[in-house]
Design brief:
Layout lengths: L14 H11 L8 H14 L3 E5 L2 H11 L7 E5 L8 H5 L3 E5 L10 H13 L6 E5 L8 H10 L4 E4 L7 E2 L2 E2 L6 E5 L12 E5 L2 H10 L23 H12 L1 H19 L5 E3 L6 E2 L5 E5 L14 H12 L5 E2 L14 E3 L2 H9 E4 L7 H15 L1
Helix pairs in contact: 1-8, 2-8, 3-7, 5-6, 9-12, 10-12
The protein binds pyridoxal-5'-phosphate.
The site of pyridoxal-5'-phosphate has 14 residues, from helix 3.
Length: about 375
């Protein structure tokens, strides 16, 4: 049996182990310590932002932002439709009503025209959302300028969920350098990993400072335990931050490799009937965190999409037989049973992308021979 090709496994550069050892040697085997400070400092600098707060996950970062906004029952929250559920779950857990905004066909990210329509409707009804959460999908920034202008016009904060897009750019700006605050994920399959972890960043230094405090049970600055408000246990540990410091150093190399992998797929799969790649917007540079293809057979997208197309499922099964992991594109939020009653603006683009899309193995350590193995199966199945 061939060895397994995973979708997006971690790729370590070498210094991570030494840094973890240094953290051990310092005996800061704790949720605070010099590696956390270092990781935050390096990360904020890479974003050209004044501060960043290292957390146990990106979901925790989103939850802290929901806390800051006092999101509660009766509030609405606008969110990208084509995303992972964690983008919206913290707001809904707090009682908010989600409204989903479909993707732009040209970027797969939140469609600014639909956001404009949704905000216009909300303004007319005097029901503006508490926040807009826009997702940088699969390593590509959304249209920051347009989204920022729309949100600023109605004074609604904008969160950029950049969990999947660290290292991408929008007109020379780093991913997430937009809106009120941005969040990042370092779980095992992300572009850099700390095995699990996240970051919250903002131009607003005081906001980051409040989040940091709340991530540590909101302890006041006294020598005794004093709490003027309630917080959480969301801080990143010093050991995991050590991995993050090392991973951040090799981010440019990881991105270079991911983009090479994408080019490798493009070269080998060009010309396969009906096969396309996720489009890249002219306004920035995508990392190709994952290489994502769509397969458009003759089959029409059914009125009620519930699963990926037969063609996608067949290709996934064929890859699996060869011990190759692949994943469908995120199932749109408006199709999720848990959001059955939620309003969606548009929906056809995300449905089509889910129906026809497939994420191919994209780990930074993927060898040329691995890409060939994947392409061999894709060609055999699709040609
Ligand atoms: C768009 C998006 N938002 C949020 C998350 C949640 O990140 P975490 O697993 O670090 O909580 C993920 C991935 O897991 C994601 O892809």
């Amino acid at each position: 049996m061939n060895s397994r090709i995973f979708l997006s496994p971690p790729w370590m550069g070498g210094d991570e182990r030494k840094l973890v050892e240094a953290a051990f040697n310092s005996n800061y085997v704790a949720p605070c310590g010099p590696m956390v400070d270092q990781f935050e400092k390096d990360f904020a600098a890479s974003l050209k932002r004044p501060d960043a707060c290292a957390l146990s996950s990106c979901t925790a970062a989103l939850d802290l932002l929901c806390h800051e906004l006092n999101i509660q029952k009766g509030d609405t929250v606008f969110c990208s439709d084509l995303t992972f559920v964690a983008s919206i779950a913290p707001a809904v857990q707090r009682g908010a009503t989600p409204v989903f905004i479909d993707s732009d066909k040209a970027t797969w990210n939140m469609n600014p025209d639909l956001l404009a329509e949704a905000l216009e409707d909300a303004k007319r009804k005097n029901q503006l959302p508490k926040v807009v959460i826009a997702v940088d999908l699969y390593g590509q920034c959304c249209d920051y300028d347009r989204l920022e202008t729309l949100c600023a016009a109605v004074d609604v904060p904008l969160i950029i969920d950049s969990a999947e897009a660290l290292g991408a750019t929008y007109q020379q700006r780093p991913a997430g350098d937009a809106g009120w605050a941005s969040v990042y994920s370092f779980n095992g399959n992300k572009i850099i990993t700390t095995s699990g972890g996240g970051m919250l960043s903002s131009q607003d230094r005081a906001l980051v400072e409040r989040a940091r405090k709340r991530s540590q049970q909101a302890r006041e600055k006294h020598i005794w335990y004093e709490h003027a408000e309630l917080g959480y246990n969301y801080r990143m540990s010093n050991i995991l931050a050590a991995i993050g410091v090392g991973q951040l150093q090799i981010l440019p190399e990881i991105i270079r490799r991911k983009q090479q992998i994408f080019k490798g797929y493009q070269n080998k799969l060009a010309g396969v009937p009906g096969l396309s790649f996720m489009p890249e917007a002219a306004y920035g540079k995508a990392t190709r965190w994952l290489t994502v293809i769509t397969l458009d057979s003759d089959t029409r997208v059914p009125a009620a999409v519930a699963t990926p197309s037969q063609q996608v499922c067949a290709l996934m099964a064929a890859l699996e037989r060869e011990n190759i992991e692949s994943r469908p594109v995120w199932k749109p939020m408006h199709l999720q049973p848990v959001f059955q009653k939620a309003k969606v603006y548009g929906g056809a683009v995300s449905e089509h992308t889910f129906f026809s899309g497939l994420c191919l193995p994209s780990g930074a350590g993927l060898a040329l021979s691995d890409i060939e193995r994947v392409c061999y199966s894709v060609l055999r199945e699709c040609e």
